[in-house]
Amino acid sequence: MLSSQQQIISFVNERLKDKKAVWLCTILKTWGSSPRPIGAMMACTVEGELVGSISGGCIEEDFLEQLRNGTLKEQFNIDRKPFTVKYGETEAEQTRLKLPCGGQLHVLLELIEPSELNNAVFSQLTTALESHTKISRVLDLTTGNIGTEVYSSEEALVIQGSKIIHSLSPMYRLLLLGAGDVAKYVAEMALALEYDVTLCDPRPKYLDNWFVEGVDTVSNLPDDVVRESFNNAYSGIIALAHDPRVDDMALMEALKTNAFYVGAMGSERTSAARRERLPELGLTKEEINTLHAPIGLDIDSKTPAEIAISIMAEVTAVRHRAKLL
Predict the structure, then answer these.
(1) Which residues, 6+ apart, have CB-to-CB distance to 181 below 8 Å?
(2) Domain that includes residue 213, residue range
(3) Using one digit for the tens of pLDDT, what is the confidence trace for 106-119?
(4) Are residues 60 and 191 in the same domain?
(5) What is the domain-level CATH number for residue 210?
(6) Using one digit for the tens of pLDDT, what is the confidence trace for 10-49?
(7) Where are the beta strands (DSSP E) in the chain?
(8) Partners of 109 in beta bridges
(9) List of the chain residues with pLDDT < 50
(10) How many domains does the chain divide into?
(11) Is residue 36 a part of any domain in this protein?
(12) Which pTM was predicted?
């Protein structure tokens, strides 16, 4: 599974390889209610093959209509540079495009044609995102030239004079420990939130009847899995096995990494007992203090689905550096 950003960048990369030009649309500014955030993208070939979204469908339809009648190419041919289209500036246009009340969008349009430079840039972007590496796409509005920077900020898009820096985030990954009902619900919710999800359980037969489409399952030792694949700031580790042989083995490695989230399911008593055990595994007090346990936001959750909601709410809050409830 690819994130929406990866899908779009990969789409452009593949079409350029096929020597096809691609329109890339990026939201620069929004006012009022907007269905998509700043930095959201859509890509479309000149033949009308489209991926991504910048609205609920209304602007996409308007874009395709302008593509069919040649308006977009006429605008681009004026100086062959990126240009901005403003949607929803009038009440009549908001009604025509079915934009939310007061909603306005400024969308940057680029016609990216196959060339040695453009092909190299999108190949580099694709490789970086696939390897979970920070990267930004840089656009010079005066020339239309594009490049990359090994950099990514919390702001999706920054405008510096005539230069636009569009930060592209690598796909976040979650490692779930323990094949069970809670893990199924967590996995399904995480997939909907565009996480790359892996479930690990080394116990014999535990994986036999556990399946969620789109989730990789492994029976390797948890500490090895963390060490090899879940050890950076785009990784989260969630211990759900209720078995110290599985959970603690993963936590032993996870709490030494800079993973953005490490949590373990269990009651207050279970979590306190775990914190007493972890120093015996070579973990420092500072490392143990980064553990989220009991896991999840306190919403009086009881069922597996409710527990999963509380877990993913906390993961989301931590990821976005929000103030937890």
Answers:
(1) 304
(2) 173-319
(3) 899 999 999 999 99
(4) no
(5) 3.40.50.720
(6) 999 999 999 999 999 999 988 766 667 889 999 999 888 9
(7) 22-31, 41-45, 50-52, 83-87, 104-112, 135-140, 146-149, 157-160, 163-168, 173-177, 196-200, 216-218, 235-239, 261-264
(8) 25, 83
(9) 101-102, 323-325
(10) 2
(11) yes
(12) 0.72
